[in-house]
Amino acid sequence: MGSQALQILRQGVWASITGGWYVDPHQSTFSNCFHLYLWIFLLAFPFLLYMSLPPSLVVAAVYCAVVAAFFTAIKAVNFHLHAMFDLGEMVEKRQVSHITNAPRFLYPTGIIFCQTLFKKTMLFYVHPSEEAHFHSSIRGLYCGETLFGFQNFGIWNRGVGENVFAVVLASMVAFLGFLLLLQGFFRDIWVFQFCLVIASCQYSLLKSVQPDAASPMHGHNWVIVYSRPVYFCLCCAHVWVFDLAGRSGHLQPFSLYGVTFFSAHFLLCARDVLIVLTLCFPIIFLFGLVPQVNTFIMCLLEQVDMHIFGGTVTHNILVLVTALLYGFCLGAIIAPWEHPHVPVVFSVFCGLLLAFSYHLSRQSSDPIILWSLVRSKFFPELLGRTPEEPPLEIKDPLPEKLHNSVKEMFHSDLVMCPLMAVITFAISASTVFIALQPALSYVLYMVAGGVGFLTHYLLPQLRKQLPWFCLAHPVLRSREYSQFEVRDAAQLMWFEKLYAWLQCLEKYFIYPAVVLNSLTTEAQLVSQNPMKLDIYGRALFISLAGMKLLRLSFCAPSLQYVTLCFTALFFLFDYPHFSETFLLDYYLMSILFSKLWDLLYKLRFVLTYIAPWQITWGSAFHAFAQPFAVPHSAMLFVQAVFSALFSTPLNPVLGSAVFVTSYTRPVKFWERDYNTKRVDHSNTRLATQLDRNPGADDNNLNSIFYEHLTRSLQHSLCGDLLLGRWGNYTTGDCFILASDYLNALVHIIEIGNGLITFQLRGLEFRGTYCQQREVEAITEGVEEDEGCCCCEPGHLPHMLSFNAAFGQRWLAWEVAATKYVLEGYSISDNNAASMLQVFDLRKILITYYVKSIVYYVSRSPKLEEWLANEMVQEALRPCLGPAYVDSDPTFNLNIDEDYDHRASGVTPSSFCVVYLDWIQYCNSRRQTVSVPCHPVEESERDSPLVTLCFGLCVLGRRALGTASHSMSASLEPFLYGLHALFKGDFRITSPRDEWVFADMDLLNRVVAPGVRMSLKLHQDHFTSPDEYEDPVVLYDAITANEENMVISHEGDPVWRGAILANMPSLLALRHVMDDGSDEYKIIMLNKRFLSFRVIKVNRECVRGLWAGQQQELVFLRNRNPERGSIQNAKQALRNMINSSCDQPIGYPIYVSPLTTSFAGGHTQLRSVWGGPVSPHNIYAWLISSWDRYTYTTQPVLVMLRL
C-alpha cells in the first residue's frame, strides 16, 4: 500500500505538476539527471531570457529558434534510431479474447528478443555465431534505455508527420508564451510560474504523464501527449486576441438582460480569467479537469449541435442548411412588411425551415445502416461476407427490416417535406400569426402547456409502478401486469394509443405553430426597427432559433412544455421588463433548462448517495471520508453548478462521500469504441479449438443472449418508447432491464424523430454477491411494507406505507415498468453428468446415436452414390463374412445394446437383431424426403444398405471411444469424448475406418448430426420413455427436430446465426472450465416472450460512478478486485453500474455497438399512426380506393343499364 501511494505521488501528482518529469527508480542515476537537466533547461531558458535581456521580438525569435532546433535534434536522432533498429520482423501471436489482447511471442532459433527504450518489442534474426557480437552492438549503439530513458514516448516512435507536428507545437508554445511575457501580463513570482507552465507543456511532448488524470485508457496514451501544448496555445491565443480587441474598442457591444457583452471591460475580464487559468495548468491537469484533445473537439461539436442547432449530433449538413435559410430570412426582413400582410419571401422561409427541420430530425448520426443500404443498391460487389455473419442457409431477417425502415423514411420525407413546406407557406401567408395577436399566442401557450402536462406528466405518473411514490400499484395497467408468465406479445392499450396521438399532436401541430408564431413576431419586430437592431445578426439568430426549436419539438417534446410555460409566465407576466423578445427568451431558456435539469439530477444523486441513514461503507476510507465531507457541502454545491454548466460528471472519490468534478464527456461517455468480440470457431485457430477449447467460459458463451436482446430492442425499442412503455426519456438516460438471468444496462445515446440510438451492456449471469444484493433490491416489492418509523401500523388500501414511500424517494432509481415484454429465449441447463451417470442411460444414448446415423444415411440424397462406390464396397466386404466380429475395446456390454458377449464384440448379426427393423422402416420412408430420391430396393440382412449402416455405426462408436481415450465405461472420459464429437472433433485412428475418407459427407452429413440428434432424443427420453419405441414416432420426432431445431456446438458460427435469426429451439452441449470447475451442461433454448423489469436510473449517477471508476483504476492505479467503490450500495446500484463500465475497468460480458432502432418496424405503432406516407403507399391507396369504388358502383351501373 505504501509503495503504491508513493508511486501515485511520484508518477501521478508530481509528474502532473512538472509535465511528466519524475525520478524513476527503474532508471539509472545518469538517466534521471539527464531528464532533470533537460527539464531545468526548458524552465530556466525563457526565464533568464526575459529577466536578462530587454523585451523585444528579436529575443522571442531567438527563443523560438533555439526551442525548434533543440526539439528537431532530439526528434531526428530518435527517429533515425528507430529507423535503424525497427527493421526486424516481429513475430507476434495475439490471444484472441474479448477480455484481453495482450501479445505473446514465439522465439524460433536465431531470433533475438530486444525491448527498445520505448518499451516496443522487436525481434531480430541473427545467426547464432554472431549473437554475442549483436548483443554488444545493441548495448553500444542503442543506449537509450540506460542514457535517455524515454521509455514512454509513445509519440516518438510514430511517423514523420507527427514528429514535425510536435516540433511545430513546441515552437508555438515558445512563441505564444514569450509573446505574453513581452506584453507584460505577468509580474514578480508569476513570471516564474508562467515559465514553469511553458516548461511543463514543452516537456510533455518529450515524456508525458502516463497515465494522465484525463486518460480514458490503461497503458500509454499517445493522444494525451498533445493536450497541454494545445490547450496552452489556445489559451495564449485567446488572451492575446481579447487584449487586442479590448484595447482597440472596435467591437460593438450589446446588452442582453441588462448584461453588456463584448465591451472593453468584458473582454479584459475574460482575458484575466484566461490568464489565471493558464497559470493554474499544473493543478488543472493534476485533477484532470480538461479532456484530451480529441475528446474536447468531440464534446465541443456535440454541445454546439445540441444547444445551438437543437440537433442529435448530426452536424454534417447544418452549415449548408443554415446558409440557405439565412438568405431567405435576410431577404424577408429587409422586405417591407405592410400591415397586416406577410412578405412572400418570409412565408417561403418558414416553409423551408419547417421542411428542413423535419428532415434533419429524422436523420441518425450512425451512418452504418444508411451505408449498408447504399452499398447493397449501388455497390453490390463490396458485400463480402465476414466470418461473424450467419451462414447462408440461416437467413437473418433484421438487416432487411432495417433497410426497409430507412427506405420508408426517405420515401416518406420525399412526400412529407414538400407537403409540409406548402402547408406552412399557406398558413404563414394567410397572416393568421399577425391578425390574431396577442390572443393567438396566449391560446397556443395554454394548449401546449395543458397537452404537455397531460402527456408527459399525468399519463406517465399513472402508468408508473408506484405513482407519485404514494400508490402501491399503477393506475393505468397493461394487460400483462397481472399475468404470472407472459406468453404473448404485449397488448396495445387505449392509453398507449392516446399517448401516441397526443405526442403526434404536439410534434406536428402545437409546437410548430408556437415556433412559427414566435418567428413571425420576431421578424416583424426586426423589420419595423431596422436602425435599432442589427438586421444581419438578427436574421442569423432567427434562422438558428427556428431550426433548433423545431428540431427539439420533433425529437424531444417531453420537456418542452416546462420550458415554454416558464418562459411565458416569467417574461410575459412576472417580469415583462426583463424580456428581450419571446423568441430570444424561449431560445435561451431552452439552453438554461437543459443545464438546470442536469443540476437537478446531480443534486439528487449526491443527496441520495451521501444520505447518512442509508450510506454503505465499502472500505475503511469511506468511514474516514464521511465526516470530512460534511463541512464542504457548500463547495459541493458550487462543484455541482460548475459540472452542470460544462456537462462534466460529478464523481465520488474512491466511491466515498467526497465528490470531485471530472472532465467533460460526450453523451455516449466512453471516448473509445469498445465492443465485445465473441470467441468462436470463426476467429480462432483450429489447433486452439482442439487443444484448449477457447471461450469455454460461461461469460463468453452467454454473451450471445445479450446480443440477441440487443437485436430485439433494435426491432422494438423506438416504438415502445413512443407508446410510453418506459415512461419519460431524454438523451443520455440509462435504464436497467432485469429478468431471471439477464441484467443489462441500456444507455440512450441519441433521440430522433422516429429513431433511437442506444447501447446495451450485459452483466454476468452469475454475478458477485454485491450484484445479487442489488438485483434483489430492484426486483423486490415494497407493497407489503407496513412500517411507519419504528412501528408497523399498516397502510391504507392500495397505498404505500410511510417507510416505503420515504425509502423510495431516497433512491437514485425507480421502477418504470414491471412487465415489459420482449422476444427472447428461455434458457435451461441440465448437468450432463447426472443424466449419464448410470450405464443404462448411456446405453440409451448410444442406441439413439446408432438410430440417428441410420436415419441420416437413409435421408441422404447421396446414398446410391455411396452404395456404388468401389472403395466403400471394398472396405466393407469383410463385414459380409459370417464370422466377422468387431472386437474393439470401445464396445462394451454395459453401453452397447447390440454387443454379443459370446463373440466379445459387435457382429453384423447382433446389429441386425437390434436395428434391422429401424433400417427397413427408414428406407421405406425415403421417398418422403424433400430431395427427390427413392427407397433402396434391397434392405435385407446382407444388403449393401445394411452393411453401410453397420460400418458407419461401428465407425461412429469407435470415434467416440477414441475421443474418450478408450475409457467409455468411465463417466468423465465418456463426457469428454461425447463433447469432442459434438463439436466436430472426429479423429479416425483405426485403419478399418479410413474408407470414410472416400466422401467427407459421410462424417459431416451422417455421423456428426447423428451425435447431436442423439443428445436431443436422450433429453426427450426422460419425458416419454416408451414413446420412441415406435419407429413412426421416432422418425417423425427426428424429422421435426431437423426442421424446427438447431443442434450445434456453441462455438460454431451456426449457433450464433441461428439465435440471431430467431430459430424456435436450439440445443448444445457446453463444457465449462471456470474457477477450477469442469462441468458438462446440456443447454436448451426455446424461443418465447420474456418479461423484464425496467428500472430507470439517474443518468448523473451512472456518469458519476463511471467517471469515478475510470479515475480510480487508470490514474490512481487501484488494482484491488474487492475495492470499496464496487461494493453494493442499493440506493445507487453502485456495483451493477460500475460492473457495466468498458473493460478492463468494468467486467460486462457484452457491450453492443451503437445501435439504432427505427419506429417504422414496430407493428403496433404502425397500427396507431398508419404506415409512412410514401409514393408507393399513395399509389397503392389510390388503386385500392378505385377498386373499392368500382366494386361498389358496379351493381348500380348494371341496374341503370337494365
From TrEMBL:
Segments spanning the bilayer are 34-50, 57-77, 164-182, 189-205, 225-242, 254-277, 283-301, 313-335, 341-360, 414-436, 442-459
Classification via InterPro entries:
Pecanex (IPR039797), Pecanex_C (IPR007735)
Membrane topology summary: Multi-pass membrane protein
Q: Which domain of life is it from?
A: Eukaryota
User: What stretch or stretches form a coiled coil here?
Assistant: none
Give the main localization category. Answer: membrane
Q: Which UniProt keywords apply?
A: Membrane, Transmembrane, Transmembrane helix
**Location of the protein in the cell:** Membrane
Keyword Transmembrane listed? The answer is yes
List the GO cellular component terms: membrane
Annotated Pecanex C-terminal domain ranges read: 939-1163
Transmembrane helix among the record's keywords?
A: yes
In the record, the note on similarity to other proteins reads: Belongs to the pecanex family.
The protein's name: Pecanex-like protein
The organism encoding this protein is Oncorhynchus kisutch
What is the primary gene name for this protein?
A: PCNX3
